[in-house]
Amino acid sequence: AVLSGDEAAFLRTVDPNTPNLLAEERFWFAGLASGPLESFELSGQPIALLDDGGLLAKIMMEYKAVADKRETFVSLMIRLAPADSGYRWAGPLFEEMEAGYFTVRYPAEYEQLAQDLWPEIEAAYRQVTSDLHIESPAPLTINLYDSPNALRSSIALSAPDWIEGWAASEQSIKLLLRSQAVPADYRPSLA
């Protein structure tokens, strides 16, 4: 589906129950038009059966863009959700904290940082909704990524190496977790 440009077939492989994932994967697929691929291959190895019947899998993504001819290899730990005919891509295995209008999704080993970020997220959310005079804000999802490859792969294959955050309409806010960072360091990316 990726190499043939079949968006409908591609989106049928995506779990519709993962927050914002269909919109995010639609954007990812659209990015291929500006950076078409010469080759693309996914392979995976099951790691664990999850309580919900899903799988945790180590996915290897290998691709080569037409423009730069550079082969890129990315290793990701991905959750595959059960579907009628097998499994669907459900993104990274995240834990969740939810309250009010927003949800923070994060790798399990970063639970303390996610809790420490909560006041920064609440403050930024209140400030933005106040500044923009939004009375009934839409729910917001923030995904925290533990590697640059995981973040870039969730946005677009052409995303630059230096990217540390991302926000777009109908998508999750995406932040790269940085070693030695304190919650206040994420404030500019949240606002």
Question: How would you portray this structure in words?
Answer:
The chain has 191 residues and is an alpha+beta fold. It is 25% helix and 35% strand. It contains 5 helices and 9 strands. The strands form 2 sheets. Strands 5-6-7-9-8 form a 5-stranded mixed β-sheet. The protein has a 4-stranded antiparallel β-sheet with strand order 1-2-3-4. A hairpin with a 5-residue loop joins strand 2 (55-65) and strand 3. The longest helix is centred in the middle third of the chain and has 21 residues, at 111-131. It is globular. The mean pLDDT is 86.
Q: How many β-strand runs?
A: 9
The helix/strand order is HHEEEEEEHEHEEH
Largest sheet: 5 strands, mixed
How many helices in DSSP terms? 5
Q: Let me know the average pLDDT.
A: 86
Distance between the termini: 36 Å
Task: Give the class from helix and strand content and strand pairing.
Answer: alpha+beta
- Residue runs with pLDDT of under 50 for 5 or more positions: none
Shape: globular
Please report which band the strand proportion falls in: under 5%, 5-15%, 15-25%, 25-35%, 35-45% or over 45%: 25-35%
Estimate the helix proportion, in percent: 25-40%
- The whole-angstrom Rg is 17 Å
Main sheet strand line-up: 5-6-7-9-8
What is shown here, in short?
This protein has helices at 7-11, 21-30, 111-131, 148-155, 187-190; strands at residues 37-49, 55-65, 71-83, 86-92, 95-99, 102-106, 140-145, 165-166, 173-176.
